Structures are given as C-alpha cells and as structure tokens.
Amino acid sequence: MTKRIGFLGPRATFTHLAVQSFFGNEVEEVSYSTIPQCIDAVAEGKIDFAVVPTENALEGSVNLTFDYLIHEQPLYIVGEIVAPIEQHFMVHPSRKNDWEKITRVYSHPHAIAQCHKFLHQNFKGIPYDTATSTGAAARHVSQHPDEAVAAIANELAAKEYGLEIVKENIHDYHYNHTRFAILHPSRKLEYTSPHLTPEKEKTTLMITLPADDQSGALHQVLSAFTWRKLNLSKIESRPMKTGLGNYFFIIDIDMQLDDVLIPGAKAELEALGCSVKLLGSYEAYSIKKNIGNGV
Ligand SMILES: O=C(O)C(=O)Cc1ccccc1
C-alpha cells in the first residue's frame, strides 16, 4: 500500500525536499503547516511517517520538535536524513528592481538565523517576521504583492510560488546542513529508501538526572558511556519545564541499540537514580547534493 508521508509544509520547504530525496515518488505526500500538527498526525495513525527538522549546523536544535516529542507525543525516531541547505533572498516579481527597498523579511526562525550577517549588512534595522517554514514565507510573499516584504527560502520555493531570487546563497557559513527525523509510533522504520543508502547507525536517549542534584551527576552519566567506549556525537540539555535549573539531556550514541553495552549503560544510570528513555535507534542517511536547487 502507498505510504503516506507527513512533513512540515507547505510544498517546497526543506523538509518537503528531504522527503522527496528519501522516499522518492512512490509515496503520498501530506503537508502540515506546523511541526506539532505533523507529529500529532503520525501519533494518531493518519499518516505512516512524519518528517520534521531536528537540528541545524548553524543554529542548533529545533527545540519545538524535541519539546513536542518529549512533553506531548512520545514517538520513536526511526530514521535520520541530513541535507545541505542553501538559502536565497526572494521577492515578488513586481519588486525585483527595487528589492533593496523592502521593509520586512519573512522566514522560518532558523533560516533567518542562518543569514544574520547578510541581513545585518544589507537590511540593518528592518524587522524580521517568523513564519512556520521557509515555504510558508515564500507563499506569503507571493500572495501579498502589496507588501514590501522578502522571503528567505530555497530555489524550488521561488519556482513553486513564482518569486524572483535577487540574492543567492545568503547563508552566513558555507557548511549549512540540517538534520531531519523520520518519526513513527513503533521503533522500526521497515521501509527502504529507493534512493539513499544508510551511512551510519545511531541511538538517541533522553536522560533525566536524579532530583536531589548531586555534584558530579553529569560526570557519572558521561563516564557510563566512556568506559564502555560508546562514542557520543551529541549531548544537549533542554529545560524540563518544571522549574528553573531543571534539565534533561538528549544524547546521541554512534551505534545501533545492542544487547549489552547500551542496556548496560542504561542500567548503570538507573542505579544512579537517573531516568533513561529510548527516543530511537535508527539508520542515518545523508543527501550529498544541495536540496532545493532544482537540479
Ligand atoms: O522551513 C523549512 O523549509 C523547513 O523545512 C525547516 C528548515 C528551516 C531552515 C533550514 C532548514 C529547515
């Protein structure tokens, strides 16, 4: 049966392009206007998989995704897609000759953050408005020719929404990659990408330290991984939302969940009073060419 794949839409967002690179044409694409709506849809069984952004190389984690997963909808990460990102500056075609006179810039907060230097140098002092996605920003600009507003988005969004790219590659650093998670209520992906081959295996855990705030607790957590030679590729703290100073940690381990080492580390951490939750054990894929440039 044709799989239904939900993503942060509308059409021509970076997430949509990651979906197309990973799943190809044989799936039904279902666009959602926010990350929580997309996550809810897979939790409720309306779609087979949800694809949402989780982390950008320049800006860090997409907090909304992790917070919604941790606090609202417990799902598993069943796959990861990493893609290079190029941001372009685009306006309504009627403004292509006086684009420097725009008075507002519209985009996803991460896209704005990826282009801060460009915006500071070229549009000092003008307001930035955040959109739910780069695609939503591009669509807004196309539907409001009366507004002196520009969008930051990819080349396919310019094509999709009939906008004119007036400045290419405005992201501040060349290395601009984003990670997307494929989410599902059960632990396994059980789907093979027709286009991409997995590059590595990963396990993501959420760890909460004991409530009694012992000194060295984080050190003890890390040493449970270190002496087992479990390589960590990410550690990130997020507020528990129960009070100032209460955090949990998200840890990525560079290997698939096994029967010995990761369960051993988990048992050791639990003996220390930590709680440990598996967020997923999955294969990581990477897209080599820039997505969104229409090639
Ligand atoms: O807004 C989009 O197009 C997304 O898919 C989220 C995003 C935003 C900025 C960089 C990469 C992904």
UniProtKB/TrEMBL annotation:
* CDD domains, per database record: ACT_CM-PDT (cd04905), PBP2_Sa-PDT_like (cd13633)
Superkingdom of origin organism: Bacteria
Per UniProt, residues of the Prephenate dehydratase domain are 4-185
> Broadest EC class?
lyase
Q: What is this protein called in UniProt?
A: Prephenate dehydratase
NCBIfam families in alphabetical order: PRK11898.1 (NF008865)
Which pathway does this polypeptide act in? Amino-acid biosynthesis; L-phenylalanine biosynthesis; phenylpyruvate from prephenate: step 1/1
Q: Which InterPro entries match?
A: ACT-like_dom_sf (IPR045865), ACT_dom (IPR002912), Chor_mutase/pphenate_deHydtase (IPR008242), Preph_deHydtase (IPR001086), Preph_deHydtase_CS (IPR018528)
Is Ligase included in the keywords of this UniProt record?
A: no
